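ok so for the tutorial part 2 we go from a plain amino acid sequence to predicted structure tokens. step 1 is just haveing the sequence, like this:
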Amino acid sequence: MRGPRLPVGILVCASLFFAGATTASTIPYAGVVAIEELKLARGTFAALILVGALIAAAASLASGWLSDKTRDRRRWLVACALIGVVGHGLIYGLRNRFAFVVGYVIVAPFAETMFPQAFSYARSYYDARAPKRSQFMMSVLRTCFSAAWILVPPVAGWFAAAGSAFDVFGIASAAYLACVAVFGVLFLDDTTKVETVAISEGAAAPSVDAAARALPWRIGGGLLIMSAIMLHAIAVPLAILKNFGGTIKDVGLSAGLAASLEVPFTMLWGLAARRIPKHVLLAVNAVLYALYLVLLSRAHSMAEVLCLQTLNAVAVSALFSLMIAYLQEAIRGRVGLSTSLYNVVLALSVVSAAGLFALASRGDSYRVVFLVGAALAVMGAVMLLLAQRRLPQDCKIS
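step 2 — the prediction. this is what the tokens look like for a chain of 398 residues:
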């Protein structure tokens, strides 16, 4: 097979960096835009997040299923990125409640399927051309994604402080446009095309059936852990402003510091996954994340919050990077659909986090929210361990 003329690894890493920029610029400030700028009630904001997450779950499943049947995964990536340009550009341009609801709740979830499908493309590409590097490359790509969280949140915070919090959506729209350009370059070389490889259903049936027994437990464990992370993502920007004496610049500083610490740990967890089962690493780090949330609930200043970001980075770097690979193995021979499970879990975690946020937040205090997140993380760790027990000995793949 003729090798690619293009540096595919570099291009996919670039796309994951820009994909990270789309979330790093908006997630820390979405609550600020909705509640502080647009004056939406917290219950209304939670309801909007819930609806958007349900749309995201459906969009991700559809995208994953269809991508496994397409003759060229690159087309899906370009389409998703273009949707992101439109959705976030709408919010940036109009800056009103209607634009926020349409762009953030209805349009953006379809764009977000680009993230798992970029991993799906990379997994398919490396499984076909360099299978021994495939697992490690997933960690490299996750590191590129994390790098965006180092650089972008402080920049987005500066734009939000100097102008308006709506400016972060302009950054996200530009990042999606950059993804369109990167994916477009891949079309210049036909060897970068990735097609679905047909598998023998008869041969795969035993292992598929065995893995299916543990699938609800895998998804359930991942859902609880990601719900804890999403609950933190929703609450911590508001807690920084209301409970920890911080400013809008501190929101970006905190997110950027955590991401900068994640980068080396993500690479280390990728190497550790070669020797230690992923479900064990995930369970251990879920407990570490629960400890972080408990300590965060007891913090009283930004200095304490910033000090805790090391523990946050250790746990989150493992939970994000290894969860993708863990779920990619959930449905044998269907890398697109398996990878889409990550977005489904992510979307459903936002649903649960939004509901729990509305119930657990009281007045201007968000400390109880962090304790609820800690409980979810511990329960998720238990479910991942139970999932492994559901598999026959010869089918334990994580």
